[in-house]
Amino acid sequence: MHVFYSPIADGPMLILSQEESYHAVKVLRLRPGQQVVVTDGQGKWFEGELTEANARACVVNITRREEQLSRPFRLHMAVAPTKNIDRFEWFLEKATECGIDEITPVFCENSERHVIKPGRLEKLLVAAMKQSLRAYLPVLNPPVKLQDFLKKDAQGTKLIAHCGSGTRNNLQIVYAQGQDAVVLIGPEGDFSETEVKIALEAGYKPITLGDYRLRTETAAVTLCINLNFVNGLL
Questions:
Q1: Which of 49, 93, 207, 222 is 20 to 30 A from 173 in CA distance terms?
Q2: CA separation for the pair 107, 185 (Å, rounded)
Q3: If we measure between CA atoms, which residue out of 204, 122, 111, 105 comes closest to residue 161?
Q4: How far apart are CA 80 and CA 96, in angstroms?
Q5: φ, ψ at 115 (rounded to 5°)
Q6: Along the 234 residues of the chain, how does pLDDT read in single tens digits?
Q7: Three-state SS for 22?
């Protein structure tokens, strides 16, 4: 069954956005009477019948409502956008499929990219949410400088993955099931020594992903998968 996204879903009927309606009518060629599924991105599923198939505004008559179970922990990842934006988009897509609650792009001293287009990234998150049959749309925060991000009062276990010197522990040593997590992943050139120092002073625990050097997006997805696995979600 085809899945659509509508952040506003009150009452016995809902109207799909122009973008979702165009996709339904012009791409999928849906017609009145066909069954569809809609999510509001906040945990709710709506099954219904397409009563009006208009490329500008499709109308869905809701016949069944269901709420997806909330996640047992909250995962917030602050990741430096990669020089090749396709790699960062790949991370967003895979993280959404695996399960993530909040994402903040952070610009670091060694960042090679300092501009992103949030509109395109939001569309990618919506598509990944629908494809993976999830009812929760991750929050994509505006990009910030890493030092500004570190000034915020983050809740949960705070982790930083880096390749620098000093003691770094495996994830299972510093993280316990059920705890919220805030994870920092740096750019291709890694965090600077100053940035690592500031993060540690802010309460972030240094972790390692092994002896091999991973790309930014690979490290981010690896930690996303590991944290969901520890919490029994993958």
A1: 93
A2: 11
A3: 204
A4: 17
A5: -140, 135
A6: 799 999 987 779 999 999 999 999 999 999 999 999 999 999 999 999 999 999 999 999 999 999 998 899 999 999 999 999 999 999 999 999 999 999 999 999 999 999 999 999 999 999 999 999 999 999 999 999 999 999 998 889 999 999 887 788 999 999 999 999 999 999 999 999 999 999 999 999 999 998 888 999 999 999 999 999 999 998
A7: helix
Q: pTM of the prediction?
A: 0.93
Domains of the chain: 2-67 (2.40.240.20), 75-230 (3.40.1280.10)
Place of tokens 């988009």: 89
What is the distance between the alpha carbons of residues 49 and 37, in angstroms, rounded to a whole number? Answer: 9
Longest dimension (CA), the chain: 63
Name the residue among 53, 56, 51, 116 with its Cα closest to residue 88: 116
Q: What are phi and psi of 31, to 5 degrees?
A: -130, 160
DSSP string, 103-152: EEEEE-TT-S-----HHHHHHHHHHHHHHTT-SBPPEEPPPEEHHHHHTS
Using the 8-state DSSP alphabet, how is residue 28 labeled? S
Residue type, 56: R
The C-alpha torsion from 217 through 219 and 225 to 229, rounded to 10°, is: -170
